[in-house]
C-alpha cells in the first residue's frame, strides 16, 4: 500500500468525526443562544418589574400626600367657616360643607392609594386566588360607592339650602352609586360559582 492513499474506512471515520464536530458545535451554539435569550428575557422582566414597582410606589406616596393636603385644606375651610365673624349662618354652613366635601375626596384618594399598595406592592399578584381577586374588586367598588354616596349627601345639604330644583343632580349621583352597588351584588352572585367550583390558583403559603 502506497503512502498518501487513504482507505475507504479511514475516509468514513474522518467524515464521521467532522460531522460529529459540526453537530457538537451547532449544539453548543444552540445552547448558548438559548441561555442568552433566557438571560435577556429575565433581565428585561426584572427591569420591567423594578420600573413597575417604582411607579406604583411613587403613585401610592403621591396619593397619600395629596390626601393629607386635601384633609389639611378641608380642616382649614371648616375652621374658617365656623370661626368667621363676617359671614352669615348660610355662608358658614356652605363653607363647612365645602370642607366636608374635600375630606370625602381625600378619603377616596387615600383608600385608592391603600388599595394600590396592597395589590401591587405588598402582595404577589401571581399567587392570588380567585377569592382574593374577587375581594379586591369588591373593596375597590365599595370605596367608590361610599365616596359617591357621601358626596351626594353633602350636595343634597348644599343644594337644599340654595336651590331646591338643583337637588336632582345629587339625587342622580346617589342613584348612580346605588346602581354601582347593585352591579357589585350581581358580580358577587355570578362569581360565587367560581368559589363553589374551587380556586383556579393555588393559595399563597402561610
Automatic annotation (TrEMBL):
Keywords: Membrane, Transmembrane, Transmembrane helix
Membrane-spanning residues: 53-76, 96-117, 137-157, 163-187
Source organism, top-level taxon: Bacteria
The protein, known as: GNAT family acetyltransferase
Natural source organism: Chelativorans petroleitrophicus
Lineage per the UniProt record: Bacteria, Pseudomonadati, Pseudomonadota, Alphaproteobacteria, Hyphomicrobiales
